[in-house]
Amino acid sequence: MAVNPTFRTPVIARPTPELRDKLEQMWKDKPGLLGWLSTVDHKKIGHRYIFTAFIFLIVGGLEALGMRLQLAQPDEHLLTPALYNEFFSMHGMTMIFLYSLPILSGFSNYLWPLILGTRDMAFPRINMFTYWVFLLAGIFLYIGFWEGKGTNVGWFNYVPLASRAYDPDWNVDIYSLGMIFLGISTTAGAINFIATAFRTRAPGMTISRVPIMIWGTLTANVGLLFAVPAVSLDFFLLWCDRQFGTHFFDPAVGGRPLLWQHLFWIFGHPWVYAIVLPAMSIVSQALPVYCRRPLVAQSAVVLATILTMVLGFGVWVHHMFSTGLPAVAMGFFSAASFVIVIPSAVSVFAWVATIWTGRPVFTTAFKFFAAEVVLFVIGGVSGFMTAAVPLDWQLTDTYFVVAHLHYVLIGINVFPVIGGIYHWFPKMSGKMLSEKLGWWNFWLMFIGFNVGFFPMHISGLAGMPRRIYTYPASMGWGDLNLVTTIGAFIFALGVLLFVINVVMSLFAGRKAPPNPWDADSLEWATESPPPSYNFAVIPQVGSLHPLWEGRLEEKGGRSILEEGAVLDHEHEIPGTTVLDAEPDVILKQPHPTLAPLIMALLIAGTFVGMLLTMWWVAFGCMLAMIPALFYWFWPNAETGWEIRA
Amino acid sequence: MSTIYEEGTLPRPLPVGKAGFRTSGWWGMLALIGTETSLFAYLIFSYFYLQSQNSQPWPPSGLPPLRYAIPTTVALLISAGTMWWAEHSIRLAKPPRLVIGILVTLLLGVLYVILQFLDWKIEPFVLNADAYSSLFYVITAAHVLHAIVGVLILAGMVLWSAMGHVSPQRYVPISVAAMYWYFVVLVWIAIFVTLYLLPYISPH
């Protein structure tokens, strides 16, 4: 084997066709199925994340439409009560865990190395691993659904209803083990994003030149690192209670049902921020492009983002105001829930000021981002209302809360995501989406959403509780529910138009130039779609807006994009320091490998064994992980180990 | 056009591969330790929460014996020292001491796992007796599992050190493995204090 040289001065040059050929040979995947399974290319991983999460969005959406048909009129019998329980539980679980974070991971996986001006993430193999685990955990969570064994006591799964005594079948077992399984993907992904942000930015991208999109995702992932263990533990304890007769939640011998709620919401509320902060940062990154100016008060928005996440760990009890906690606790958490409005409002004012002082170009993407601002304000205000304890006692478990959480999650997650796809689709696919279809797509989604979800505020105030499968005509909720159902279907039609637009554009769309929107960040400096190696030479970053230099009256350096470090010995990227982004190492990145897939399959085998209580299967898979990990981490020159000749 | 590079940027000689101290692996391990530490924090939170909500005696079925817990603590504290010594040796370019140091750490880790199994055998309560005993076993088992992972990491390091993959210029995998081992030891201290010592100091 070759001996690695210990030091090397990177060659600085302009890209030549020969260099591009050489890099393409080096970075491209193997052909065929093996290449598909063994790739560690962040762009392919990003595509797969977005595609898979979007499938889950459609599945969860169909479940929602089923519920809306059932609720459209009083005393309907389209779904049985048991099936309705499964529908709303699976809908919540799917949207919250299998759609909203994975889709954002898809954006980040695809875009981070491009925005950071480099060729890959810090841990490409872990990156691929997180996708396989997400896919397998998603399938695992759905295995029971077709036989009536999907989770059926709500996505937050309260004990004692979720205990073996009241839910004896596999429903909650699948949910519990599946959530622990999925948590592995989330955590491993968070570790990868953190290391990438601190380690692999392009030379010169100092901490003050890091684009806002990176900040949103980084903040969310630091939060996830500390939040996910709470829910994994919670589900593990519940599974032990159900499987081995332990007593964590059993008040007869010292356990407490409220322990479930505490651990769940200690995780649950930071999770809300983890699924909105990256989406908000999509808006902060892309909205200014259509306003033809930089984001107003970028530093304040970054600090507010971080502050929101920190405060987000101190508000979990506002989900538990009706459980009879001491008044002091409720006072504290109520106050904290009011305070968190302030950093959230910073972003809103920054967006409004950006639109106000800019020269907006009314593209479809712009419309989705502007709609996000409006829906965020509505969802934020209804959240602010329920932060007040007395009002919360009236509204908790009513449709008012359903309206609130959908304004937040659809408004701040789905709208930015669709807008983000309109913005980055040219980069990801090399094709432009149709703006004409986009116009219909946007207005159907925006009108359908508001027609569907705004009346829920009113039905909630009228006392309609959540999670009921039907209601008598005498309650007088029929008309409001009919309007909601009609709105839901208009919204679904909008989503369908979006899918049609994507499919048509992929086959017959206009070819996209490298920078169709004349945007400012580095992903637009390379071709559309980018080559396997992203950048032929590594860019040198001199400002926050590398592609707008010269047009902005900005002090400071100039970026150098036309020449840079060549780094053409195998998979190489520069490693840089945390604050100043000075290059301090040439990193050797791994080549495609099957190790992540093998590990993910072994973990899946472990969970299947645990579900079926075939302990030898679970234990055997765990033992097999040892050689699999040794295979994964075996030292080789490719990944920068010193190999004696 | 003359290209102006900012101070500290390219081009200059740079180390290649796993060189330096704050490597990708260092960041990855730091993040992993952060998430695993919070797992134990939530376990200990659950312990104190259930204790605070209980009017029954805590622990309900007698104090956990210290017969094996104290030797465990001593063994793990020594193992942190041997791990440090091993890492220090490779910086001083003494590879044989490196292998010996990791090997001793590994054996002390195995000793801890054995002692913990013995400890479980003499506990006056079983897993599904009550909420306290359930938590006691889950917390200690979670730590044993982390220690076993640590032992496997150390086994890898012994193997790769013996094969000559680690050098005074490039020893970062050793440092990253050492970080994990220190984490295992520190978490044990928290568990020892919470589960074994506090019930003696303030019997409920």
Report on the architecture of this protein.
The complex is a heterodimer of chains A (645) and B (204). Chain A has 645 residues and is mainly alpha-helical. Chain A has helices at 17-27, 32-38, 42-71, 81-115, 124-142, 171-199, 212-244, 257-291, 298-312, 327-339, 341-357, 364-386, 389-395, 399-429, 435-461, 478-508, 595-611, 615-633, and strands at residues 7-8, 12-13, 538-540, 560-565, 572-576, 583-588. The model of chain A has no long low-confidence stretch (mean pLDDT 94). Chain B has 204 residues and is mainly alpha-helical. In chain B, 70% of the residues lie in helices and 1% in strands. Chain B has helices at residues 24-52, 69-91, 95-122, 131-162, 172-201; one strand at residues 14-15. The termini of chain B are far apart.
Please supply descriptive tags for the structure shown above:
heterodimer; A: 645 residues; mainly alpha; three-stranded antiparallel sheet; two-stranded antiparallel ribbon; 6 strands; 4% strand; globular; B: 204 residues; elongated
Output the structural class of chain A.
Answer: mainly alpha
Please bin the fraction of helical residues of chain A.
55-70%
Number of helices of chain B: 5
The rounded Rg of chain B comes to 21 Å
Return the average pLDDT of chain B rounded to an integer.
90
**How large is the share of residues in beta strands of chain B?**
under 5%
| Outline type of chain B | elongated
Q: How do the strands line up in the largest sheet of chain A?
A: 2-4-3
List the helices and strands and how they pair.
The complex is a heterodimer of chains A (645) and B (204).
Chain A: E1 7-8, E2 12-13, H1 17-27, H2 32-38, H3 42-71, H4 81-115, H5 124-142, H6 171-199, H7 212-244, H8 257-291, H9 298-312, H10 327-339, H11 341-357, H12 364-386, H13 389-395, H14 399-429, H15 435-461, H16 478-508, E3 538-540, E4 560-565, E5 572-576, E6 583-588, H17 595-611, H18 615-633
Antiparallel strand pairs in A: 2-4, 3-4, 5-6
Helix pairs in contact in A: 3-4, 3-5, 3-16, 4-5, 4-6, 4-8, 4-14, 5-6, 5-17, 6-7, 6-17, 7-8, 7-9, 8-9, 8-11, 8-12, 8-14, 9-11, 11-12, 12-14, 12-15, 14-15, 15-16, 17-18
Chain B: E1 14-15, H1 24-52, H2 69-91, H3 95-122, H4 131-162, H5 172-201
Helix pairs in contact in B: 1-4, 1-5, 2-3, 2-5, 3-4, 4-5
